[in-house]
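Sample pair:
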Amino acid sequence: MSRVNMIRMKKLKMCISWLCIIMPMLFCSACGRQEQPEKGVIYNIYYVNNEETKTLTREYASETKDTEALLGELFAQLKKIPDKLEYEAPLSNGFELLGHTLDNGQLTLNFDEHYKEMDITKEVLVRAAIVRTVTQIPEISYVSFTVQGELLSDSAGNAIGTMSKDTFIDNAGNEINAYEKVNLRLYFANEDGTGLVEENRRNVVYSSNISLEKLVVEKLIEGPVSEGAYPVANPTTKIVSVTTKDGICYVNLSEDFLSQPYSASADVTIYAITNSLVELSNVNKVQITVNGNTNISYREKISLNSIFERNLDLLVVPEEN
């Protein structure tokens, strides 16, 4: 073998030796990158601050795609005491989550009787933290709370009903249950119950954690405050839920709505609710249900299977003195 060939062979052996060293290193490096898990989808876990004035968040990454499994993960995070002691875990407040059901985008959470032992402010914050956390799951649009199987009620005894991520408003960093003022135009019955009279209320104070639609229904059930106006709905009626979608306000009431202790006619009651809600800028039509059922004839006169629009034919204009 010539000297030139020997030199070439020596260089070839050196190249092969280097390749034998480098290739395993490259392979291991590639394997290392593949084994590193992806960061996954980022979710905000909501907590209550120790002063109980607002909610705070921290990020949580999950690669879980199954809805039930992901929901279990978020529940675990909501129950886990955070490292930062200024946070309170919403599901670690002396009550237990007994179970849940998910049906057609609505999640129902059932708690034990200790849930009601929280004071009003803390309960709102806990509820907001839970709802805001779980509605980040694409398959969950609405959440309702029950206690031992019964719908959670507010301090006035009205069922709180379904909630969405937009139910709770932070008001630019202020308390989540801050209060605001609004002007309302409501409709009630005239003296003999055959017509509608208008009642304008200015600077109505309300908690901003409820929707204006629900506020209107609450005020209608409470009854009028001005002379010449009379109630249109049974005062024992409970609000199951009030939601608005695509300009239609869906009002779900308890069965007490079907009984009428006052003289207001069926038309007057239905259109007192409808006209009052349509006064809101985001409502064009109204559907009324009783415990979610539309296959009902209200006082055997009006089918609740209908969607109602504004009707001012019943409006009675007061005579000028």
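The chain is about 25% helix and 25% strand.
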